[in-house]
TrEMBL record:
Family as reported in the entry's similarity comment: Belongs to the TonB-dependent receptor family.
Residue ranges occupied by any TonB-dependent receptor-like beta-barrel domain in the UniProt entry: 337-847
Molecular function terms, GO-annotated: siderophore uptake transmembrane transporter activity
Protein name, per record: TonB-dependent receptor plug domain-containing protein
A GO CC term attached to the entry: cell outer membrane
Biological process according to GO: siderophore transmembrane transport
Length: 901
């Protein structure tokens, strides 16, 4: 079906190839399009139509010419468009093997396929991206970060999770990871920062976080651009306007996606003028001073397309000092011709986030809104311009490319308890932890002539630690895709290369402060300049990442597809001291590795596919980790860097095995499901280790870690209902025995003095971690379920539940203490169409006002009780429990209106 007539038909209708293409028929004999669940509104969406190859609902298949056309979003109006049941039944009839044998070109225009006028309802269906999706012919999945490398999901040898624009619409979520938490079994959110716009995405026990110092185990791409930031591989999801996201796909470890793909890769595709036409204005307000507005506009003239999304959010926060101001935008300009498509796009944001972090349980018992050691704020800014394109050189060859420039600026302020005490042998002045060889020197009011700081400067003492980074990064990727058959076997071969460079100017300072009521640290204006642990830092870090990759998927039979691939990664990380006074900070580290992958899928019957795969991936230590890996010189986390020994790179070895299938009823009933096993073994895993000095720590390789488990998901749809449920068991454990400092753990033992032990008369507490101990912060079980019900053609109602089991506290790697309790949260949403263009909606999150924690660790009781002297609500010696948690948001309610055309 690669003849000229089929290509013209595809370009005119955008769907005929769905029913006629052998590539689709081989793995997707049931050509029934996904059933549309009751939609909730949004601008009209149409698919890319420039490719002559197979297209399935909502995605672009191999050789697609539209770089941004993956995961298009559903069409409005909201509840007024019922699923096209009659179309589904008509299109389930073509026999799969007969379709695969249609070779003569003149049969391509036979009247058997559905007429073009019926095509849009098929391609607009959001079912591929709804919770619990798992159908064997539900769209396609990219085999590289760059668009244009897709194969049918039925041929991908691993689990595939999705989130779409429709998922944002139906839930009202404004933070991309929240959608993935609901739709992907293995995803759960963690909150070390205490702000809904700064949560960690955790997939199968691997983290993707906006927090420096968290080991980043996922590679994240936006329109083919790697958006793991240069300094710490962090990912700032708060930069992404939810009304600009077309679709998200998350897969397990795949080396083709480059560094950090230990646990998997997340690709985020944005809207453009070809996959979204219309305009939508969305305004909303409600609990805790929340008000927001968003605008999305898209249009095209056939050969030119444009899209613009703007979004502003103000939220006072559910805790003290936790206000957020989000300002973000995305715009795209695209052009397409005969076999070509190019896009130029821009992402910009300027956000302020109050990150209130964990607080002592005793303090939260007094008031769920209480915070500890404020201020804690983050300012994030980004400006990124990127260009991507696709050229069909011939019917079987295509070229794709992406280039970008990204500017990122972050300023972080963190109030902490100071470790300054009167020097043991030098009365009247301050030392760090009271040690004579760590005397504090500073610049500012009240400082002695020699720079020493008087002991009676203030009581109790705090510190304000400030970090900043300005990153300039650029890069490009290029690839070629070939679909020539090999010895009569259908085949897709991909080869490509990438280069990413990041240049970061990093600075850090610490000033002394005094504690005020509510544990607020007020600066005394004294800048600390010695000892080296707290002296200012002024560094430049340079990252150069090179990659060469390939993958090949061949149909060995009509039912069996084999995929092989691999990638060579070379990483160079340089650290340069800009002050000229601390040359020991300079460093130059290189890492390299070739990572292979192999997998296969087998079509057991027209509604059932078996998959199995093996992959390796690696992660190079970040500049933040490399410069903070010496236990004798711990860093102030998120802050100070020291001269340190190099770390080893982390390597993952991942196995996957599973089934996915679907059943289709005689009417509109449809059931899709998936079930799989995974096992990911990390070698030389890097772990963040706490120091006895509060707020300080370092990074070290701790041997092997293992994350293994099961994932199950299912979804049922008919003319009025959409119901889904998914479950994942994630057993994350240490596989090597080692002794780990844990200074604030109440059940730890006194460390034995040895190499790397801090030079102190009071040895810190330690833990004996054994193989099989669970990794903190990873719930063993997570369960999600929900439904949508079309009450009337204008009115839809739905609910979503997410539940997670208990998890161990950070700092309790030996699993000695009672864990952080599990939780369950219920959200409600309802939408009502006043007219064809106006919709009212209401949202309730945490319906039962459940109080639970999303993160837990320990704190220093002695230092906290000193700080509590300044707080009238607590007074002296208030704290007896060293556990701190990040409280989840209480019940909140919002109401809003959408106007769309």
């Amino acid at each position: 079906m690669a003849g000229r007539q089929v290509r013209r038909l595809v370009q005119a209708a955008g769907v005929a190839a769905l029913l006629c293409s052998p590539a689709s028929a081989q793995q997707a004999p049931t050509t029934t399009p996904a059933q549309q669940t009751p939609p909730s509104g949004g601008g009209a969406t149409t698919p890319s139509t420039t490719t002559p190859s197979t297209t399935t609902p909502g995605t672009t298949t191999p050789g697609a010419a539209a770089p941004n056309a993956a995961a298009p979003t559903p069409a409005p109006p909201a509840a007024t468009q019922l699923p096209p049941v009659d179309i589904i039944q008509k299109k389930a009839q073509p026999a799969p093997k007969t379709a695969a044998k249609k070779a003569p070109k003149k049969q391509a225009v036979a009247p058997a396929p559905a007429p073009p006028s019926e095509a849009p309802p098929q391609l607009d269906t959001p079912a591929t991206y709804q919770p619990g999706e798992g159908g064997i012919d539900s769209g396609s999945v990219q085999m590289s970060p760059v668009e244009g490398s897709a194969i049918p999901i039925g041929k991908y040898p691993g689990a595939v999770g999705r989130g779409s624009a429709e998922d944002f619409n139906r839930t009202g979520y404004t933070y991309a990871p929240e959608v993935l938490q609901q739709t992907v079994p293995g995803v759960i959110l963690e909150d070390a920062q205490g702000n809904v716009f700064q949560r960690n995405l955790q997939y199968r026990g691997f983290e993707s976080s906006p927090v420096n110092g968290v080991p980043q185990g996922l590679a994240v791409y936006q329109n083919g651009v790697r958006i793991n930031e240069s300094f710490g591989d962090i990912v700032n999801y708060d930069f992404l306007p939810d009304n600009a996201i077309s679709g998200m796909t998350i897969i397990g470890a795949n080396p083709v996606f480059g560094l950090n793909a230990l646990g998997g890769a997340l690709t985020i595709m944005m809207r453009d003028g070809f996959n979204y036409q219309g305009a939508e204005l969305n305004v909303m307000g409600g609990s805790f001073g929340r008000y927001q507005g968003g605008l999305a506009v898209g249009a095209n003239s056939g050969s030119w397309g444009g899209f613009l999304a703007l979004e502003g959010i103000h939220d006072d926060g559910y805790r003290d000092f936790s206000a957020s101001r989000i300002r973000r935008m995305y715009t795209d300009l695209g052009a397409r011709g005969d076999g070509t498509e190019f896009h130029l796009n821009f992402t910009g944001a300027a956000n302020f986030v109050g990150v209130t972090a964990a607080a002592p349980e005793q303090l939260l018992d007094l008031n769920w809104a209480n915070t500890f050691t404020s201020p804690q704020t983050t300012k994030n800014q980004v400006a990124m311009i990127s260009a991507n394109g696709n050229i069909e050189v011939s019917p079987t060859w295509s070229l794709q490319g992406v280039g970008y420039y990204r500017w990122f600026k972050q300023s972080h302020v963190d109030g902490n308890i100071s470790e300054a005490e009167e020097c043991n042998g030098i009365p009247g002045v301050l030392c760090l932890e009271g040690e004579d060889d760590d005397q504090l020197f500073g610049i500012g009011p009240g400082v002695n002539a020699d720079g020493s700081i008087p002991e009676d400067i203030a009581d109790p003492l705090g510190s304000l630690d400030q970090t900043s980074q300005v990153a300039n990064s650029f890069g490009f990727s290029g690839q070629a895709v070939n679909k020539d058959s090999i010895a009569g076997y259908k085949n897709q071969f991909l080869i490509g290369a990438s280069y990413d460079r990041g240049n970061v100017a990093y600075g850090a300072t610490s000033t002394l402060g005094s504690f005020e009521p509510k544990f607020v640290v007020n600066s005394l204006g004294i800048l600390l300049v010695a000892p080296s642990e707290v002296s200012p830092r002024d560094l430049t870090t340079i990252n150069d990442y090179y990659g060469v990759y390939f993958s090949d998927t061949v149909d060995l039979t009509s039912d069996l597809a084999l995929t092989v691939g691999g990638r060579y990664n070379f990483a160079r990380v340089q650290i340069l001291d800009d002050t000229g006074t601390q040359p020991q900070l300079n460093g130059d580290n290189t890492f390299q590795r070739f990572n292979p992958m192999v997998g296969a899928t087998y079509l057991l019957n027209p509604g059932l596919t078996l998959y199995a795969g093996y992959a390796e991936a690696n992660r190079a230590p970040t500049p933040a980790e490399l410069a903070c890996s010496d236990p004798a010189f711990p860093c102030l986390l998120e802050s100070f860097l020291t001269a340190d020994p190099p770390l080893d790179q982390v390597v993952s070895h991942t196995w996957e095995l599973g089934l996915r299938g679907r059943m289709q009823g005689y009417n509109s009933e449809r059931f899709e499901w998936s079930a799989g096993l995974f096992r990911a073994l990390n070698s030389d895993d890097i772990y963040q280790i706490a120091d006895e000095v509060s707020g300080r720590g370092y990074f070290d390789n701790v041997g092997d870690t293992l994350r293994q488990g099961i994932e199950i998901g299912g979804r049922y749809t008919d003319a009025r209902w959409m119901l889904y449920a998914n479950y994942a068991l994630v057993h994350a454990t240490f596989q090597s025995a080692f002794i780990l400092p844990s200074p604030d753990n109440p059940l730890a033992f006194e460390c034995e003095e040895g190499p790397g032990s801090p030079a102190s008369d009071d040895e810190p507490n330690c833990l004996q971690v054994n193989s099989g101990d669970r990794i903190p912060g990873v719930p063993l079980s997570r369960f999600k379920t929900g439904f949508d019900y079309l009450i009337t053609p204008e009115w839809k109602f739905g609910a979503d539940l997410v539940a997670a089991s208990s998890q161990f506290f950070y700092g309790d790697e030996a699993n000695l203490n009672a864990p952080l309790s599990g939780y369950a949260k219920v959200d409600l949403h309802t939408f009502y169409d006043l007219t064809e263009n106006v919709q009212l909606y209401g949202l309730i999150y945490n319906l039962f006002n459940s109080q639970y924690g999303l993160f837990g660790n320990f704190f220093n009781l002695e230092a906290a009780n000193e700080a509590s002297e300044a707080n009238p609500a607590t007074g002296d010696d208030f704290f007896t429990n060293p556990r701190t948690i990040t409280p989840a948001p209480p019940l909140v309610a919002y109401g809003g209106m959408k106007i769309h055309y």
